[in-house]
Amino acid sequence: MSSPDAKDSHRQRKTVVTIEDLCKSYMLGHMELPVLKGLDLSFYEGEYVSIMGPSGSGKSTLLNILGCLDKPTSGRYLLGTDDVSTLDDNQLSAIRGKRIGFVFQSFNLIRQLNILENIEVAMYYQHVPKHQRRQRATMLAERVGLGDRIRHRPFELSGGQQQRVAIARALANDPLIILADEPTGNLDSQSGAEILEILNELNAQGKTIIVVTHDEQISSQTHRSVHLLDGQIERIQSNGTGE
Amino acid sequence: MLSRILAILLISLRSLWMHRLRSGLTMLGIVFGVASVISMLAIGEGASQQAQQQIAHLGSTNIILKTVKPPDQEVADASEQTIQEYGLRYADAERFRETIPDAQVVVPVRRKPKQVFYQSRRITAEIVGTVPWYTELAPIKVLLGRFLTPMDMHYSQAICVIDETVLDNLFKFDDPIGQDIKISGEYYRVVGVVRQLSAVSGVQDDTSMQSSAQSNGVGGAVYIALTTMKNRFGETEVQFGGSTGMSGEKVELSEITIKVSSMEHVLPTRDVLANLLERHHKKKDYQIIVPLELLRQAARTKRLFSIVLGSIAAISLLVGGIGIMNIMLATVSERTREIGIRRALGARKSDIIVQFLSETVLLTLIGGLLGMALGACIPILVTVFGKMPTVITPGAMILSFGISAGIGVTFGLYPAYQAANMDPIESLRHE
């Protein structure tokens, strides 16, 4: 449970994510290829964390495991108070739907659905009643500044707008954590800045955000930066920003 | 729950609508498959109902004996007589009435095609010499006047009863009752007009009648008392020409129909009749027709017919189903990314299965409905242009609808299963 960098100014808060001795290896033919080699990490409620590292360092793998899209080979992953490293496929789906909000580099909106419906999708799988879905989706669309575009299709929006829809969608089920994978990677600097602004705002409202990025500028805006190298934590840097 | 199903279907409809052309083409396979199943079954059913109706009109408790000309070899034996005598006789009818207890009604009939004249008009009609109780076998509705009576029989009256065809051809504008029509140089007074309720007498008619009726384009019947017919026409028909210069035939009755009290008596009575006839007829100059047997045979044939037609059509349905599966597999791989997104957003495998399955089922159901509509039209066209009777049974409709839904599920399961089992990480990366 110890976090060596917890000596920073953060008030002692509930941990949202705890990983202990997390290992992940892939089988390449008969060869075992370790990608994550025993990570220990904790993220606190309301924290804004960036995960950095060169390609091949295991960032994506860590993100997939954090997002419950993948299972660790060994080690524990506590999301909230639940150990999710042992759950089956259906339980993982439920966890993904309820507790995790994804923001992808390439937005990943469903193109045959309009903005409102895209935001609703995550709620749909949690069996939220229709009128409630509609209401919340409209509210979220307005919150990311797209209240007037709810009937548009994704391809009718700019990249920045699409990413805003994706953020709204990630918020739909009021998740414990938001996982953002290079959220500004496909955007021009102007839109990127807007997206970061929204993320900052969300964090300011108390959302826990974990962002995977190459971009030093983004990581400098976060509270802490976890630097990965070759499947291990190279260093954890406290940025002293925020709050 | 219902609203959720509706929502799922609505979403599926949207996805199908996005690829209208593809969905439409895929659907065509089902449309034609279902349409062909329905129309094949309708044609089969129509044919069998027609056959059954015809047979049923012959009467399932009836046994029909018919005069047939014996084969040529036996004719040679009698060639020195020049007049050939064969067929059912009055004595046969009498004998049946006396010896067969189950025979409720015995109706002897003699038929002969003749030209019938009234003033300047003419028609070739079948002269039916019969008895007053003929009506017990062939349902007849008297439109005007009356049918034959025992008195007519007894006195061999020169009266006749005509049917509607004759009425239309000879008496377009006149009241026929009391008028005289001329047949073979003799006059008969018309006392009644009847309508034959079973329009199948043509089936029983001997071929000479049919051919003459066809050549004139008209048919029709004139009923006269059997005794009158015997007196006026005689039994011998003489033809001139041929190698001997003259030849003749002597036939007393064309047909005897026996009605028994119930269906169980039909087959035993048939055997008794066969024995009796065999004893009294040297030559095989008669034919025994049992409608009940024909009815059973027709039922068997019908089943076979329907099975054959149905399975041919079912093959086209199967091909349609394979087409759907093919397209769905393509769709699944094309929408890999969407599947990944949905999985990341919390969709379980079963949600993905439901989504793709509902698309396939919807596709086949819409196809099935269109196919039913088309399938309902084709038999009508067949009836109108092909002059073939068709009957669309609700059973065929339900069957083909069920089959198309079944095809949707069957051929949709595999693609849906494949979609559900994609690795979400891989599919999110998929371009």
Name some characteristics of this structure.
heterodimer, A: Rossmann fold, 32% helix, B: 431 residues, alpha+beta, 2 domains, 3-stranded mixed beta sheet, 15 helices, 13 strands, 57% helix, elongated
Number of domains of chain B: 2
Low-confidence stretches of chain A: 1-9
Count of DSSP strands of chain B: 13
Report the CATH C-level class of chain A: Alpha Beta
User: Helix amount of chain A, in percent?
Assistant: 25-40%
The radius of gyration over CA of chain A amounts to 18 Å
The separation of the N and C termini of chain B measures: 35 Å
CATH level-4 homologous superfamily of chain A: P-loop containing nucleotide triphosphate hydrolases
Task: Report the C-alpha radius of gyration of chain B, rounded.
Answer: 33 Å
What fraction strand of chain A?
25-35%
What would the CATH topology of chain A be?
Rossmann fold
Class per helix and strand makeup of chain B: alpha+beta
Structural summary, described in words:
The complex is a heterodimer of chains A (243) and B (431). Chain A has 243 residues and is an alpha/beta fold. Chain A has one domain (46-67, 89-238): Rossmann fold (3-Layer(aba) Sandwich), CATH 3.40.50. Chain A has helices at residues 59-66, 89-99, 115-124, 130-143, 159-171, 189-204, 216-221, and strands at residues 15-28, 31-44, 48-52, 74-79, 82-83, 100-103, 177-181, 208-212, 224-229, 232-238. In chain A, strands 6-7-8-3-9-10 form a six-stranded mixed beta sheet, sandwiched between helices. A four-stranded antiparallel beta sheet of chain A has the order 2-1-4-5, with helices on one face. Chain A is globular, with a radius of gyration of 18 Å. Chain B is built from 15 helices and 13 strands. The model of chain B is unreliable at 199-218 (pLDDT under 50). Chain B is 57% helix and 20% strand. In chain B, the strands form two sheets. A six-stranded mixed β-barrel of chain B has the order 3-4-9-6-8-7, surrounded by four helices. Chain B is an alpha+beta fold. Chain B has two domains: 2-54 and 298-429, no CATH class; 69-284, no CATH class. Chain B is elongated. In chain B, helix 2 (20-58) packs antiparallel against helix 11 and helix 2 (20-58) runs antiparallel to helix 14 (394-420). The interface between A and B is medium-sized, with 28 and 23 residues.
